[in-house]
Amino acid sequence: MTARILDGKAIAAGLRARLAERVATLPFSPGLRVVRVGEDPASGVYVRNKDKAATAAGFDSATIHLPADTSEAQLLATIAQLNADPAVDGILVQLPLPPQIRTEAAIAAVDPAKDVDGFHPLNAGLLAAGQPRLVPCTPRGVMHILAEAGVPLRGARAVVLGRSQIVGRPMAQLLLGADCTVTIAHSRTRDLPAECRRADILVAAVGRPEMVRRDWIAPGATVIDVGINRRPDGKLVGDVAYAEAAEVAGAITPVPGGVGPMTIACLLENTLDAAIARRGAA
Ligand SMILES: NC(=O)C1=CN([C@@H]2O[C@H](COP(=O)(O)OP(=O)(O)OC[C@H]3O[C@@H](n4cnc5c(N)ncnc54)[C@H](OP(=O)(O)O)[C@@H]3O)[C@@H](O)[C@H]2O)C=CC1
Ligand SMILES: Nc1nc(=O)c2c([nH]1)NC[C@@H]1CN(c3ccc(C(=O)N[C@@H](CCC(=O)O)C(=O)O)cc3)C=[N+]21
């Protein structure tokens, strides 16, 4: 079998176009502010892509770039200003942060109504309680891909590889909310390949280049590769060994061009949602 390729880049372009149409009907431009601290090289690319996509879709987008030696208090003061600014609907604090700043403190400082990353404990808790409000962008993007691909979710066995706050956990919650039977696997899981082989839907979010091999995948399964890893030769690869996985899977997302572009499109979707919820416009 050769897997169907789930083209996240195309799905993201469609979503961005629909969002742009909605934004064009609003009497205001939804405001997005990305806060970047220091010079993490990977963040530079992501932040530029976010800014470009947001502006193209009619959002009022800007990046606030603080120096690498910014103190936690200084970052919290910047976040407080954005919380208080009525023109700002969405705030994203780019991760990772430099070591002198506690990530949890930065996340908790963002007004939950403007938390377009969905990382604030209130939003994470609401999702876990089955009352999702602002949902993390990457898992939201994965749900869009599954919907567009027509993958049946009710009663399906889903295995999520990874349990991070930003991908694995919220991913598992969304799949559970869609009536999947969900297993969360991680670095202490016994016999990872056997767990993965049970999956109708396998979501890999571990950050280990090409860890998921052909024999981890049930024939016909849907494989979603969240991983973005730069190999020593400079090539970008996922957490799944793509070529061999595509020989057994029913459908698979590529890297690049799979989940990554969806993350950015969903950031805009969350910003529009937050703007409408805050401002009461339709
Ligand atoms: N496409 C996109 O838009 C995005 C992509 N990413 C990518 O997704 C990947 C995961 O990111 P993130 O969730 O932030 O990563 P984290 O490092 O925060 O979490 C990784 C998770 O994978 C688990 N894990 C690590 N190694 C193994 C292993 N050998 N066997 C089993 N489980 C393992 C860890 O387990 P434990 O908890 O036990 O330590 C942890 O739960 C990365 O490649 C990242 O670049 C991230 C965000 C957005
Ligand atoms: N507060 C916060 N929120 C995030 O959502 C967040 C973050 N911090 N820190 C870093 C990770 C990673 N991330 C990606 C976004 C877009 C692509 C993306 O567009 N990828 C393209 C291109 C990749 C490339 O060419 O480099 C693709 O996969 O096709 C990837 C990864 C968001 N993250």
TrEMBL record:
It comes from the Bacteria. Its EC number is 1.5.1.5, 3.5.4.9. It catalyses: (6R)-5,10-methenyltetrahydrofolate + H2O = (6R)-10-formyltetrahydrofolate + H(+); (6R)-5,10-methylene-5,6,7,8-tetrahydrofolate + NADP(+) = (6R)-5,10-methenyltetrahydrofolate + NADPH. NCBIfam families: PRK10792.1, PRK14186.1, PRK14188.1. Keywords: Amino-acid biosynthesis, Histidine biosynthesis, Hydrolase, Methionine biosynthesis, Multifunctional enzyme, NADP, One-carbon metabolism, Oxidoreductase, Purine biosynthesis. The keyword Amino-acid biosynthesis applies. Homodimer. PANTHER family: C-1-TETRAHYDROFOLATE SYNTHASE, CYTOPLASMIC, C-1-TETRAHYDROFOLATE SYNTHASE, CYTOPLASMIC-RELATED. NADP(+) binds at residues 162-164, 228. This is Bifunctional protein FolD. The keyword Cell division does not apply. Pathway: One-carbon metabolism; tetrahydrofolate interconversion. HAMAP family: THF_DHG_CYH. One of its GO terms (molecular function) is methenyltetrahydrofolate cyclohydrolase activity. Residues 6-117 form the Tetrahydrofolate dehydrogenase/cyclohydrolase catalytic domain. Pfam families: THF_DHG_CYH, THF_DHG_CYH_C. Catalyzes the oxidation of 5,10-methylenetetrahydrofolate to 5,10-methenyltetrahydrofolate and then the hydrolysis of 5,10-methenyltetrahydrofolate to 10-formyltetrahydrofolate. Belongs to the tetrahydrofolate dehydrogenase/cyclohydrolase family.
